[in-house]
Amino acid sequence: AADKIRLIPQDFFAELCEQIIQHLNHKIPGINTAELCQRIQTSGVDINIGDLAKIANSLSFLFSTAARNNLSTEELVTTLGSGVSPLPKHAVQVIRHVWNEQGKAIAVSEDAGDMATVGQFVDMKWKLGVAMSSDTCRSLKYPYVTVTLTVADTAGQITDKSFEMTIPQFKNFFRQFKEMASVLETV
């Protein structure tokens, strides 16, 4: 991961660290590595989303481990410098700054932080469509609903999950959401 971190400009690396800290503090549901990767690539850096996700996971592990062990900023920086493959100087500076500013907040929230073990719902979009025809059938006129769920997994990676439903399936889906809403109102 250290070799790939060298490629990332300091401002993007700082943004990634900030998002990870916010995620660990449960202020945001996850890190949108796809969007960040696209912006980094637009700036001229050759990095893929898989490498950026690995870096995000490594940093998340680093910050959460440092919080669990209640490391000071200097202890964290010393630990980073003693590794087999030391991090680039700009990365250590960013980590030092972010940990110094927000590290203690993780240490406080980390005690209750293991409650989210299944991921988190972020957003939902839907659209109504009609299949007009296909290669095998000239006149379908078949209505359907496409639903896209945006979710953050337990590591904080944000992904989209899409599926299609018939109108009766969508009505059942909607009915279940109404039931959930009415139950939540009683809580």
TrEMBL record:
InterPro entries with a match to the protein in the record: COMM, COMMD4/6/7/8
Domain COMM: 120-187
GO MF annotations, alphabetized: NF-kappaB binding
Record field: transmembrane: none
Family named by the database record: Belongs to the COMM domain-containing protein 6 family.
Record function comment: Scaffold protein in the commander complex that is essential for endosomal recycling of transmembrane cargos; the commander complex is composed of the CCC subcomplex and the retriever subcomplex. May modulate activity of cullin-RING E3 ubiquitin ligase (CRL) complexes. Down-regulates activation of NF-kappa-B. Inhibits TNF-induced NFKB1 activation.
PANTHER family with a match to the protein in the record: COMM DOMAIN-CONTAINING PROTEIN 4-8 FAMILY MEMBER, COMM DOMAIN-CONTAINING PROTEIN 6
Protein's UniProt name: COMM domain-containing protein 6
Organism of this sequence: Acrocephalus arundinaceus (Great reed-warbler)
This protein's encoding gene: Commd6
